[in-house]
Amino acid sequence: MEILHVSAECYPVAKAGGLADVVGALPKYQQSLGHTAKVVMPMHRTKFLYNNEWEVVHKGSFRMGEMYLDFTIIKEKTNKLGFDLYCVDIYGLLDRERIYSYDDDTERFTAFQIAVTEWLSKWEHHPNVVHVHDHHTALIPFMMQYCFGYRHLSRIPTVLTIHNAQYQGWMGWDKATYLPAWDTWRWGLLDWSNTVNPLACGIKCADKVNTVSPGYMEELKREANGLESLFNFESGKCTGILNGIDYSVWDPATDTYILDNFTVKDLKHGKGLNKKKLCDDLGFDMQYPLIIFIGRLVHEKAADLLAEAISKAFEQTGHAFSCMILGSGEKEVENGLQRIQNDFIGYYHSQIEYNEKLSHQMYAGADFILMPSRVEPCGLNQMYAMRYGTVPVVRRTGGLKDTVIDFGEENGYGICFEKASVEDIVYSITRAVELYKDKTKLDEIRQRMMNINNSWETSAGKYIELYDSIYK
Ligand code: ADP
């Protein structure tokens, strides 16, 4: 089977979060199952672009509203990622350093989608499935069916994976003119609450829709940033498939980013060395449990609660743990986390940046990882942490609920709490501090977590079953 993935991100080409990890791993695992998986994404100006060789495979042009745009599709020459990687270059629109957060993101991602569909319309054969990811690519199933120039693509099955339903790509109706000539009788497919809503449109038009965990799909039927009724109405074609993790990237035995490689057999020693390196760098005392947070500093992740919760937990436990934060996001949250730095010298450090290497070192060296998320479609951090013997401390929501069992329950290994509140976080930190004192229990939990198989193998197979169910 030939699958074309369309995405805004793909690790290691360009990454802002979990979407990149999924699109960098799933195609690789699909290839190893004997299928042909290809990825097409925007040509962001990242190191990967400059450090690799490319060939031009297609050139084309299209009109978007009043703009006439030329585009080029380039292909990475050596199959470095284990699958064919294509990037779309649209001069002045896509060749930028950041992936998102430009004022003209609507124009950028609409143009990207038109270029991909235009290119696809010129293929001599058709892929068996077009698999689009999140709102940045969710207009493609509509265009393939209802833009007059692309009607010959309408029989290709489409799948939409929702990695995050909070962001929907809303745009005013005045921008509907950006789309290539389309059947205006179908305007209702583009519309949601009087705006063009690409994510809603994708849910309506794709043959199958899935979220990245079963728990998140259920939650969306109750709370989906305005799309609840749509998820209920379309529930017949909606499923949840849990993300896996890429074992060739996230393996403490081979990870080149970490100081000392280790396996479940020598985890005490290996984690000890990695923890020592982190603690020495930060001036922390090794004897205390090291609790970390890695992620986008946004409301969804409940990062706004961290500064207060950590301060209170330090007070309540008598400074019985150390804490390190790595992330960037909302300025107010960043400032709050920086502000408490002087109050807890020797116990607390916040690093406001995106740093892939440091994140690996933290997963390897920490004792606990805190994830108090208000919304967590799947969450990869807890799975990476477990693979590195780091105990997840998570709010029971979305994918966190699907992947972490509290250590108080049978065969449990994590610490779970109910509410994204300062009180619940503080209480969970005190539980972590207590658990850390029981070295036998901690060791047993670490071994149990490291032996859990969260690899992509199982989930990659589930996607193939999903494609099979719509293969026309
Ligand atoms: P989301 O996609 O909602 O941000 P996920 O848990 O699905 O959350 O994926 C987050 C990914 O991004 C993980 O690979 C995590 O290690 C990484 N990550 C997030 N913030 C940072 C950061 N500041 N530095 C390095 N890696 C980060």
The SS-based structural class is alpha/beta
| Residue-averaged pLDDT | 97
| Helical percentage | 25-40%
Oligomer: single chain
Query: What proportion strand?
Result: 15-25%
For the biggest sheet, the summary is:
9 strands, mixed
Poorly predicted parts: none
Q: Could you say which overall geometry the principal axes of the C-alpha atoms support?
A: globular
What distinguishing features does this structure have?
472 residues; 17 strands; globular; 17 helices; binds adenosine-5'-diphosphate; 6-stranded parallel β-sheet; alpha/beta
Descriptive notes:
The structure is a single chain. By secondary structure, the chain is an alpha/beta fold. The protein is globular and about 65 Å long. Helix 1 packs across helix 17, helix 9 packs across helix 12 and helix 10 packs across helix 15. The model has no long low-confidence stretch (mean pLDDT about 95). The strands form 3 sheets. The chain has a 9-stranded mixed beta sheet, sandwiched between helices. The two termini are about 10 Å apart. The protein has 17 helices and 17 strands. It binds adenosine-5'-diphosphate. The site of adenosine-5'-diphosphate has 18 residues, from helix 1, strand 12, strand 13 and helix 12.
